[in-house]
Amino acid sequence: MSTRAVVIDSRVDGKGFWVYEDGYPADLGVTLRNLFSKDKSIEQIFNELVQMRTERTRQLVAQTGYPMPNMNNKFGILTPEQVEVAKKSGIKALWDQFRIGAEYIYRIRQDGVYVSGIEIPKLRRVQARETFRG
Predict the structure, then answer these.
(1) At 78, is the secondary structure helix, strand, or coil?
(2) pTM for the full predicted model
(3) Which of 112, 91, 93 is nearest to 32 (CA)?
C-alpha cells in the first residue's frame, strides 16, 4: 500500500508539501497529528517528517540489505499556486492543472490536523487512532 498526499497549512497562505510513501494513509495522518503543535511552522513539520521517514527507511534497508532509495522522490514543496488550488478546488483540480496525483489532502489548522480525500469526501479531524484508510 502506498500513500500519495498533499499537506497544506491553513494557518498561512501558500505553504504546503506533497508526500509519496509506502504505508497506509492512517499512518501518515497519525504521524502528522503527533508532529503538530500550534507553534510549529509547516517547514518544521516537513523537516521532521522527512527526517523521521528517512531514518525509518534507513533502518529497514539495513535489515534487508537493499540499496537506499532516493528520498528526494518521496517529498516535495508545493508552490503557492498549487496550495491555493488544493485549498479551493481539491484533488481533481490538482491533477488537472499540475498533474499532482494525491489521494488525500491533510490540512493543518490552529486546532489540529484534518483530512479529506477520495475515500473521505467530508473534511474531518485526524484521530489519535485511525483505521487503515484516511
Answers:
(1) coil
(2) 0.90
(3) 112
